[in-house]
Amino acid sequence: MAHSIVPDQTEALATGWEPDLPPSDTLVRRAVLVHASWALAVAESLGKPARRTDRWAGGLVGHRGELTNPVVVTQPMDAAGFAQVLSEVATVLPADVPFFLVSPFPTPDLRGHGLVRIGHPPLMVRFPGGENPRLPAGIQLREVSDADDLAIAERVLVEGYPMPDLQPLTPGDILAPPILNGPTRIWMASLDGEPAAVAAAHVAADAILVEYVAALPAARGRGAAAAATWAATLSEPALPAVLIASDDGRPLYERMGYVAIERWTAWIRPRSR
């Protein structure tokens, strides 16, 4: 006799986004939650406001730079849900502060809330395994461990990304020493003895988030950014690494074994002039 495939109406069927579901439920869930953790970690290390709910996480990092303040959506929502989230975001990020909103889920048109859609960047994943390749000639690599090195890494990040809206930069504007006391590590690669590239690794939700990858223009194509990125990627050998790439940067990560698994949606709220 055939068995019915109609589910028991009293049975709760998981969607994959329940707040109490473990991060390990899916790889995408790990990626969402590690991004949410990062959004809080950077702001909190600076002593700035941050907030996390079941539907979003975000924090105030600075008052300049359209990619400075992250807001990460952690639940699928309808238009009314997004409107409510944006009203909650306003309690953390004042109206004159720009922010970058990334959603793993389809979003309604948010232009009426003053946001501008900037694209659908790929979420990329690299599974555990492998070893750091040999450093190219002229490249030196070290983990950032003190305030002096962190200030240098911050300058390389701002000049290499680039983030012109953050100039002039005061040390500690976006990276402060408390960031090194938690689940975040930062590496700096030098070219012929001069700081050239940076990358960060943030561990949460059973995943490594690779963030803040940047190289100074003169060092591009010389292996400095790849060296720092490899260090971040393999910082916890048993965990998968995830990142959001640009389409321009995607080939670099593909050469490292990263695979694009889906595209997210990115919006910005420009800074008020």
Automatic annotation (TrEMBL):
Occurrences of domain N-acetyltransferase (ranges): 139-273
PROSITE patterns: GNAT
Region (Disordered), start-end ranges: 1-20
Coiled coil regions in record: none
Family matches, as InterPro entries: Acyl_CoA_acyltransferase, GNAT_dom
Gene3D superfamilies: 3.40.630.30
Superkingdom of origin organism: Bacteria
Stated name of the protein: N-acetyltransferase domain-containing protein
Annotated source species: Microlunatus ginsengisoli
